[in-house]
Design brief:
Diaminopimelate Epimerase, Chain A, domain 1, globular, 145 residues, alpha/beta
């Protein structure tokens, strides 16, 4: 089960990064880990995005970091609101940063840094307002595989 992939301290580092990133934006960020992904990673990440209800944020500005560690697959999906405002290659840049960190064995740092990068883009396009409810959990979610 991927729950053992990160130590408790690393899980806290990741959820703290989500909280930090979200503290400057109305956007929402989720991290989902699975052991295996037997289909196209983007298709599966889109399924998880919907399963987690991420498309239901008021401004359609949620971002999913999906990782299948045993299959060495990852995807970063932004909802329609954020994708309409960032350059087409924006998620590729963040994904490349993660891949480099992962190759060096820095999984928690690479993921945390990527979350902060996404949070900065969200803050630029969706700044935190006076009323900024946390619409989605900051906790890491796990697949059944």
């Amino acid at each position: 089960m991927p729950k053992q992939l990160f130590t408790e301290a690393e899980k806290k580092q990741i959820t703290d990064a989500v909280g930090e990133a979200e503290s400057h934006t109305s956007g929402e960020i989720r991290v989902h880990l699975e052991k295996r992904c037997k289909e196209d990673v983007l298709d599966h990440a889109a399924f998880i995005f919907a399963e987690l209800g991420m498309h239901k944020t008021e401004q359609r500005n949620a971002v999913l970091f999906y990782i299948s560690f045993e299959d060495h697959k990852l995807a970063i999906l932004g909802d329609a609101g954020i994708n309409a405002k960032v350059p087409d290659d924006f998620w590729v840049h963040i994904k490349d940063h993660m891949v480099q960190a992962f190759k060096a064995g820095n999984h928690a740092d690479g993921l945390s840094e990527a979350i902060i990068m996404a949070g900065k883009a969200l803050a630029e396009h969706f700044p935190k307002g006076d009323d900024n409810p946390n619409e989605l959990s900051n906790e890491i979610s796990y697949g059944k595989s």
